[in-house]
Amino acid sequence: MLRLLFYxxxxxxxxxxxxxxxxxxxxxxxxxxxxxxxxxxxSQLDALALMSLFPLRIIPRVHPVAASDYFxxxxxxxxxxxxVVGIVPIERKPVHDSRKALxxxxxxxxxxxxxxx
Length: 117
Hints:
The chain has six helices and three strands; from the N terminus they run ααβααβααβ. By secondary structure, it is mainly alpha-helical. It has a three-stranded parallel beta sheet, with helices on both faces. Helix 1 packs across helix 2.
């Protein structure tokens, strides 16, 4: 519930009104099934901008993918990132087994319908 309130009353007004995000062809956004939506990553606000585009009813199934070394670096940011923003944390360090690196995404995909990076 906290996550929904955060996106409805903080993220949406911030992104759509204050930042003035203009969206065209919103109908192309996936609303069901597994999907990956990728931002061009201009800033940390990219994830919030993308999240603001989805209908509130599917927000519980949409998860931004974020670097664990950044978003889990202290207990307060970790709690906020995991419980409010709803990130799927991934390691940025090189690994030899790509399945291991993508395991958090696979788990999130199995639990939710929409995940984006």
